[in-house]
Amino acid sequence: MEAPKARYWEPEADGAVRCTLCPHRCRIVPGKRGTCRLRENVSGELVAAAYGRTIALNLDPVEKKPLYHFYPGWTILSVGPNGCNLGCRFCQNYASSQLEAPTSHVSPEELARMADRPGCRGVAFTYTEPLVWFEYVMDAARACKARCLSTVCVSNAYLEPEPFDELLGVIDAFNFDLKSMDPAFYREQCGGELEPVLGIIERAMGSPAHVEVTNLVIPGQNDSPELLQKLARWIAERNPRTPLHFSRYHPAWKFNAPPTPESTLQRAWKIAKEAGLQYVYLGNVSVESRYADTCCPKCGAVLVRRSGYRVEVAALSGERCAACGADADFVNL
Ligand code: SF4
Second label for 12, Cα 20 to 30 Å away, from 143, 192, 214, 274? Predict the structure, then answer.
């Protein structure tokens, strides 16, 4: 299939183009691709070169995204492109995001049809960076909506506001990776800027979309109590009922520091709770239930029990606590 023309770009002198989809605003000369490796200048026009080409097609638990307050216990068909617009030196999925990896083609309609099965809630655009897979995500999400399926993006939030507003019209839930509150960390370790990331997360939090946030805690890089507190407070000031996941780092790509100690993650959990966040979880780690379960914010009843990706919906009635009827901040109708 011929790749379609991309959206969000402008022509420049000598056949070059300026991509305006994400804050990098790459200038791309004919025959070359932008930083994300998904968009190519073909004879003076920007083309969505990775349209429909996915590195994986897996039926995953929704919890694995991670989304803990969005249809608990369901599965979701998960796809992602072979590229990313950030270059995190610690990327936990670098083989697919930073290196060439095999892909297969699936059309938007085919994807939606495959997701339309019992027990599957819809489609998750995930694994690498779906926001810069923009044209395909828009088309596939619309195909999902036509079948009343849910749509999810797991993302680094590195996009320009205008295209992001278009995505808000077709995506039901986001998990955003907020890597640090230190601008130098974003610049030096990720090859991006912090401010645009905060802008997009804030935009999503002010929309009807469901939002959860993940922070990968890396020893000696972003795990100081001050930075963790700043991150938790930033979220709490906007919406203290936003679920926050602290995820355990393992050595990968250009980083060889040892994995995050469990004690650091437990400290992060405590800091975030003290900052006022209602729902804080620890991921990639075998932990006590209080770090993984969801409890009712009013009466304390255990609503959802989790062990690894095993999920038991214990006392949830739709989106409310089955014991006292309080709103438990779920999307589950
Ligand atoms: S979306 Fe890709 S090509 Fe466009 S500006 Fe961002 S990194 Fe560059």
Answer: 192
With the most atoms of ligand 1 within 8 angstroms of its CB, the residue from 12, 22, 33, 135 to mutate is 22
Spell out the domains of the chain, with CATH numbers in brackets: 9-47 (no CATH), 53-291 (3.20.20.70), 293-333 (no CATH)
Which one of 39, 45, 156, 197 would you pick to mutate in the ligand 1 pocket, going by the greatest count of ligand atoms within 8 A of its CB?
A: 39
CB of 221 shorter than 6 A to ligand 1: no
Distance CA 310, CA 292 (A): 11
pTM above 0.90, yes or no: yes
pLDDT tens-digit map of 107-126: 999 999 999 999 999 999 99
Would you say 214 and 247 are in contact if contact means Cβ atoms under 8 Å apart? yes
Most distant CA pair in the chain, distance:
67
What residues contact 59, with CB distance under 8 A and at least 6 apart? 75, 76, 77, 78, 120
pLDDT above 80 for 287: no
Distance 262 CA to ligand 1 centre (A): 36
In 271-330, DSSP assigns E strands to 280-283, 294-295, 302-307, 310-313, 316-317, 320-321
pLDDT of residue 293 exceeding 80, the answer is: yes
pLDDT category of residue 309 using cuts at 50, 70 and 90: confident
Find the 48 Cα to ligand 1 centroid distance in Å: 11
Residue with CA closest to ligand 1 atom 4: 19
Average pLDDT over residues 221-228: 97
